[in-house]
Every structure is written in structure tokens, then in C-alpha cells.
Amino acid sequence: MALTGAGVLTAMPSFAANTSTKGSNMRKPLKGNVNHSVSRWTYGDLTIEELCQTVQDLGFSAIDLVGPKDWPVLKAYNIDSSMCNGAEISLEDGFIHAHLHDELEKRYLKHIDLVADAGYTNLICFSGNAKGMSREEGLENAVKGLKRILPHAEKRGVVVFMELFNSKVDHPDYMADNSKWGIELCKRLNSKHFSLLYDIYHMQINEGDIIRTIRDNHQYFGHYHTAGVPGRHEIDGSQELNYEAIAKAIVETGFKGYLAQEFIPTPKTKASRIVSLQEAIQICDV
Question: Which CATH superfamily is domain 28-284 in?
Fold first, then answer.
């Protein structure tokens, strides 16, 4: 179904079903042990309608990192906004910066209401770059800033997630660049409405030891992202991580959140990029 200009749902032919898929079955049943998702920005060459159609054809029902303007389209397709965004200032300017707390509080209180009113749960946030700040000062500032919004998140049933990035390759100077710092922040906040977005790609680059870290600290990780290392591309045999084993370890912890694909597909055609997504979903569908 699709939204017309008048907001009326109309039939739309399946996008993914009409693309070449190397003879693969786009509707291969999933096992149901993993809640799959895909990050919107990695498939930015598709319209939001095309991505919704693709997700449906692959058999799952969630898209990560979608803001309010696209939520009506997701709702038309019965697709969950599994990690909402749009409240942040930038990746570099986050909750470790006390001088930004007033602005962040205003943005996040408003966005928490938007997320809750839309029927969603998850909202992303960022630590920001250190810019000479010590890790302890960053923790203290982040606790103070986040405590200004978490009571409202609890009231509205929203969970705020801080994403862990690598600072070695992609995000130099980012404060929340390791699981230890993020876990300490969780402990100090001690809130069921704050969690970590454990990005497997980023943490492999910065610290490795992925499966043991997940097993030992899974209570602090409420959402996962994938991508191949090195390069942030497909999660197949072309890279160093065993995503089937990682997905099994996540499932074994009793995890009920989302595992979202966030790799950058390498094929040049839309059809082949969709095959990359299909293959990634199957790898993680343990």
C-alpha cells in the first residue's frame, strides 16, 4: 500500500519482487528468533516507499534511523521505526557538553513526545566528541544532561539509546568509543529508559572481543547494528567477523530487541544491493 497526496492508501506493486534477485526467493521464511531491521541511510538510493516494500518482501518489518517526516509512510506499510532519530544536534555535539544541555533538553523532550505519540519506543542520542575533555568529566556531564530528559522518557514509555562509535577510523575524538565507558554511564544512570546501541562494526574496530563482551554485558545493550570489518560493507565471507556466530550469541542472551543491518552495500544496481540485504538477513537469521 502507499500514501497518496490525500493520505489515502492505494495499492502499489512490490518493488523488490520486480527486481532481479539472482534467482533467490525474496520471501524465504524467517525463523522468528531475531527481530531484523535495516538502517535507512545505508539504502538512501531507495525512496522510503521502495525501502518499505523491500523490507516487506524480505519478510521483516522494521527500519532504523527514521525521523518524523517519514513515519506516515512506515505506518502505511505497517513497518516499525525501530530506532527513531531527529532530536540530536550532531554526532559531535552531544550530552557530554554541559553548555548544550539546555538545547538538548528542549529537543529531546519534544522528540520523546513525538516518538511516544507515534507509538514508537526507541530514540537515539550521542555522546559527542571529547574536544579535550577527560572521560570522567564526560561521564559526569552526560549523567547530568540525560537525567534532565529520562524522567519524561519514563513517563512516556520511551527508551533513549546512546550509540557506541569507533574513534579509530570513522569518528575521531568521539567520547563513547568503547563498551566500558558506555556501561559505566548506564550504571550511573540506573534507568530502564536508557540503554546502549552496541554497534558491532564500530566496537570490532575499537576493542574487538565481540561475543564475550555481548555475553558478559548484554543487559546494557538494547539494540545492535551490523557491518563488515574492514570497510563497513557486506557481512559475508569478504570480511573478518562471523556474524552467524555473533547473532547466535545475541539470541542466546534472550535478547528481544532489534538487530539492524547498517552496512554500505557495494553492488552498483538497486537489485543487487537488495540481494546484499537479503543475504545479510539470512546470515543473521539464526
Answer: Divalent-metal-dependent TIM barrel enzymes (3.20.20.150)
pLDDT tens across the length of the chain (286 residues): 444 333 333 334 455 544 444 434 456 799 999 999 999 999 999 999 999 999 999 999 999 999 999 999 999 999 999 999 999 999 999 999 999 999 999 999 999 999 999 999 999 999 999 999 999 999 999 999 999 999 999 999 999 999 999 999 999 999 999 999 999 999 999 999 999 999 999 999 999 999 999 999 999 999 999 999 999 999 999 999 999 999 999 999 999 999 999 999 999 999 999 999 999 999 999 9
Q: Please state the domain extents for the chain.
A: 28-284
Q: Where are the beta strands (DSSP E) in 11-66?
A: 35-39, 62-66
* Residue with grid cell 532530536, as numbered in its chain: 87
**What is the C-alpha to C-alpha distance for residues 22 and 19, in angstroms, rounded to an integer?**
9
What's the half-sphere exposure (Cβ side, CA atoms, 13 Å) at 141? Answer: 24
Torsion of CA 96, 102, 106, 108, to 10 degrees: 10
Tell me the three-class secondary structure of 173-199, residue by residue: CECCCCHHHHHHHHHHHCCCCEEEEEE
Q: Tell me which H or E stretch contains 146.
A: helix 135-146
Cα–Cα nearest to 60, from 261, 210, 235: 261
Give the burial class of 91: count Cβ atoms within 10 A of its Cβ; 0-12 exposed, 13-18 middle, 19 or more buried.
Answer: middle
The neighbour count for residue 190, using CB atoms within 10 Å, is 9
pTM score > 0.85 for this model?
Answer: yes
**Rounded to the nearest 5°, which phi and psi values hold at 91?**
-70, -30
